[in-house]
Batch of 4 targets.
Target 1
Amino acid sequence: MTSTDILLKMIDFSDGNLHDIAHFMKVHGYAQAIAKAEGLDKDTVELIEVAALVHDIACPLCRLKYGNTNGKYQELEGIELTKEFLKDTGYSDKFIERVAYLVGHHHTLNAIDGIDYQILIEADYLVNADESKYSKENIANMAERYFKTKTGLAMLKSIYKL
């Protein structure tokens, strides 16, 4: 499978939830653009793309089980859902484990341990800042403290006029 196959599989998984589909499509777009602009190898780009597509895979379950999509619930539920979702895709166990790890930590800012994790955090924040109408102060703080890639930071500053 390719990231395009995963995209189609996630659209189907989303069962017509247009907000969820639009969200992961936007995160994917930013993640892909950042990864490519940062000059990452094709395998790392593929991993980042897949992680971006499935990062909120737990949202439907969290809505049913908890009544909301709190980030900690997403992280808790997302790891096993991701492994199950990707198990017959042809991706290696190592690849699937890393994607599941990223899904299980994509709201944890104090444990970023790789460029794939960094880019997922940045891409998701770029979308969430708009969708959740974050304050200029919140966005500036995030830029200063957590954005590390040249491309992600440039996007954040340009989009949100910092």
Target 2
Amino acid sequence: MNQPILSVLVPAYNEEAGLGRSVELILAKLAELGVSAEVLIVDDGSRDRTPAIADEVAARHPQVRVFHHPANRGIGGGFVTGAAQARGEWLILIPADLALDLDELRKYLDAAPLADVVVGARSDRRDYSAFRLFVAWVNIRLIQLLFGMKLRQFNYISMYRTEVLRRIEIEYWRSAFFHAEILIKAARLGYRLVEVEVCYAPRASGRATGARPQLIARTVGDMLRYWRRCWFAAEDRKATN
């Protein structure tokens, strides 16, 4: 196929219940929007039928490609694989549980001409527990405070020019901080970050894993490690001027 405009990355870990339907819905929406696109499924070491379902979908649709991780690497590992393999001008990650109203894809595409990264700000968190709401609030405030970022959210769905991703080394892909890491580094390289408000779609199948204590601890640790590096680098620059 010719070089697509958009690469849609679908990381999948034990998503046998909904993966096939989700990819079909994504393909239908892309066709409706008239977007030249590919879909990249990254099977992240799944232990159920996800790998077989992904291969079956790819066999039916030439614009779908599948990559299999031999072991689970997390959503960040899936993102790194997708970013390396993407052929499109733009890359967007859409979770296998479709945590995005697909009608909102148009907002990302409409914002693209004036942006290098289109940052989605979800409209609500109605399926969040009080604990997850607190964790999300702390995460946002810390990133705003430590890195001077003005965005309202950092961990939802963004759409990136692939050339931006090629210029950024994603170091903290083992935690959820990688989302913010990309935005922080893109802003510091002078790229245009444009925020759009989009509607969230609650998970219909599978199991969410984003609130695990181990992942939260690693995310906070990575955030502080990166901030410390940035702080020391700034101090070194002051000392040499």
Target 3
Amino acid sequence: MALRINDIAPDFEADTTHGRLRFHEWIGDNWAVLFSHPKDFTPVCTTELGLMAKIEPEFARRGVKVIGLSVDSVDRHAGWAADIERSQGAAPNYPVIGDADLNVSKLYGMLPASTSGDASTRTAADNLTVRNVFVVGPDKRVKLVLVYPMTTGRNFDEVLRVIDSLQLTARHRVATPANWKQGDDVIIAGSMSDEEARQRFPGGWESPLPYLRIVPQPGN
């Protein structure tokens, strides 16, 4: 069954390029991004893993840990990392899970639970649904799920934008409008009464509609 927003992210233990880890323990009190790949030595994924290595400090600055996954063994990941560095200018500096037994892919609903066999006998086309981004909060609940086709590279600027929104709205009772980015105006949460909103936002708000109350982005 596919994971939904606010589900507990399944915990698991797995071998990675940084050693064996238990997912929830590894997350700790941080946010996390898990992004998955159908197979090692695939072209679009090669560009994604290289780009993530370059921008990982942007995630770290937000208190977000990054972990990759590919339906192959950790031993194969090492050879792929060399290709990634040679072609993209950076090798993964974050752990990449070896999911040769398909356990994590099935736990996260990216492959049917009935899927069997060894990863070495499967092609990228067999695993084409293993192209997800999961953002997990410190409470270990799923906050975002994005699913991409194999032919379309992921937009990690969008992932960072959503994380900025998630972290802001976790601190304040606000929501972010379409195309919001850091510093833009926000929307007062619909669950907040006008009376409470006046206390929290003494400067008032713009209200083009009775249910749309717009205020400047609150500070940290």
Target 4
Amino acid sequence: MRNYSRFIPGEEIGAVEQWSFGAVDTASILLAAQLKAREDASDQAKNNEIKQQGYAEGFAQGHAQATLEAQRQMADFVANQARQAAQNFTQLFVSAQAQLADAEQVMAEGVLELACELARQLLRHELSVNPNALQPVIREALGLLVADNKSAMIRLHPLDFEVLEETMRAEFPSLSLTFLADATIARGGCLVESAGTVVDGTVEKRWRRAIATLGLHSPWQEAVHEA
């Protein structure tokens, strides 16, 4: 075993070289600086990575929010367009219905007027060739007037007078009937008077009552007045 505690004589000591710690300190500082630079670089890289991740997350979140907002706006736009389209369609439908109703009303009135004109022509022809068509009118008027009276005056067109006087006297033998020929009364009509009360059985009057039930006001035009 070596003895390291031995005294070394001066003559055994050679040239003495002064030891300097400068080189060691510089190396340590450089090494520490390198380590610090590496740590700083690593920290910077981590910070950059965190920032990039934050940017990416923020971008993704913003993109998602922007997408949702765009979808919401699109849905609102579509809903508003659909609502507006529905309102426009409803207005068009109501307007079309109103126009159709007006057209139907005009057509109905035209058909009624045409029917009335045809009926007027048929009645004129019937009354001109068949005076007996007046008999129900006279019967109805007498039934209204002679309940308490036994006399009546009947005004007829002269041609109707010639045909109906004897027939009506024979039908009502118990009544005192006075027949008068009156050229102002159109054929097919009559005026029946009893005790101051007059029943208007003229064609004009009966025609107005008939067409009034249809909502029309067409007069009996060009009534036939034969002498």
